[in-house]
Amino acid sequence: MIAEPSARHPRWVRISHGITAVALLLLVFSGVEILMVHPRLYWGNAGNDLTPALLELPISRNYKHGGWNGEARTYDIFNQNGWGRSLHFLAAWALVVTGIVYVAFGVADRHFRWHNYGSSQRGAYLIVVFGLAPLIAATGLTMSPAVTAAVPALLRVFGGYQSARTLHFAAFVALTLFVAGHVAMVARSGFARQVRGIVAGE
Amino acid sequence: MDTKLITRRRAIAAGVASLGGLILARRPTPLPPTYGSLLRAGDNLTYAAHRALFPRGSLAREYSAAEITPFPAVGTINPATSVNNEVGDRYRELQRHAFAEWRLPVEGRVGRPLSLSLADLRRFRPRTQITRHTCEEGWTAIAQWTGVPLAAVLDAAGVLPSARFVVFHTYDGLVDCLDLVDALHPQTILACGMNGRELPVAHGAPLRLRVERQIGYKSHKYLRRIVVADDFDDGGAEGDIRNGWAWYTGI
């Protein structure tokens, strides 16, 4: 259903698919770590422990630490962001570079053929390619103070830093559901054959 | 709205003027070391991309007084009680006398080394800005900061042409540096006031740095010494890099 039996995936597709898969796993892993440090979501420009949250996720080791003692935290909070943030951005770079190469090759090689896909599948891929992927990238960039100094429109478009952060998380949830659906459809259409196709090119 | 535009335009003009004098005709800033780490190489890629793609004088968004929010005090909130060495002792002494004896040396690769008291700093033309503090943890807070543009202080000290970094030593035992693009940026200020009052001890009294185009941990509190340097200084045992924290945090 996803690919014609005769459609062998060329090597550049297999390599870029592999890099993309690893980069996405690293983005999810480091993204969850970053969220665990401050698992509260807000709307607008500002939000912190002293302001109300839109949503508080129960995923931090010691988040419910009793708040603030005077002006100080009562306990050190779970924080592995030193490597977590750098890994997140490294994986994002890998994804962006691979994505550019993939699209360039795909256009040159006429890899993108709609007749391989069913209509509901087309809809899902369109939502990802033109909706969720640009949304998660743009909201991620909106959390960068250097980027928003250069492109202030980003903060206006998403309604502020914290709104962008919340939308970044929402897009992550939606993309995770898509990937789960993608894997389920691959499995249904013959898992072994599909995996051989994407990994070994057979 | 109009006054905001004029302020921004004036700030850009001032920024361009100071950057023009100090940055033009300089050797390019070298990338910081990667220490053989892929993560640090990724940090450097981000740094190089930001410096190549973004205008040097672009301003971080400034907010209205109505948008000021509560502001958590994190990290060191009083070096007098948490820094157990001679630096902490010195801070305790200074704090006891309301920072009257506090001096900020501005030294290193400068033509006129300075030792500035708070009164000296108040003689510079002040700058007030309401900006968003963006913590690496994910929270943000908006506050009004009053202080002196670092560019004006560096100008008074006369930065030598070979200099490329400005190193900050703090009373909470940290050493960190900025490149000249961020050091001379018009919104990079040495702040002694917060929300119209004296800077509280929990937020870095008597003087802290504000670097508005980077993540919050670059805006060091409790400034002790400024050293202008030709070469990158990772701060050694007192630097953030030893614990794996990125040096450039525009992202």
Structural class by secondary-structure content of chain B: alpha+beta
Spans of chain B of at least 5 consecutive residues whose pLDDT stays below 50 are: 1-6
How does the helix and strand content of chain A classify structurally?
A: mainly alpha
CATH topology of chain A: Fumarate Reductase Cytochrome B subunit
Which shape of chain B, going by the Cα principal axes?
globular
How many H/I helices of chain A? 7
Mean pLDDT across the residues of chain A is 86
CATH architecture of chain A: Up-down Bundle
User: How many strands, what sense, and barrel or not for the largest sheet of chain A?
Assistant: 2 strands, antiparallel
Q: How would you summarize what this structure contains?
A:
The complex is a heterodimer of chains A (202) and B (251). Chain A has 202 residues and is mainly alpha-helical.
List keywords for this structure.
heterodimer; A: 202 residues; mainly alpha; Fumarate Reductase Cytochrome B subunit; two-stranded antiparallel sheet; 4 strands; 64% helix; B: 251 residues; alpha+beta; Sulfite Oxidase, Chain A, domain 2; 5-stranded mixed sheet; 5-stranded antiparallel sheet
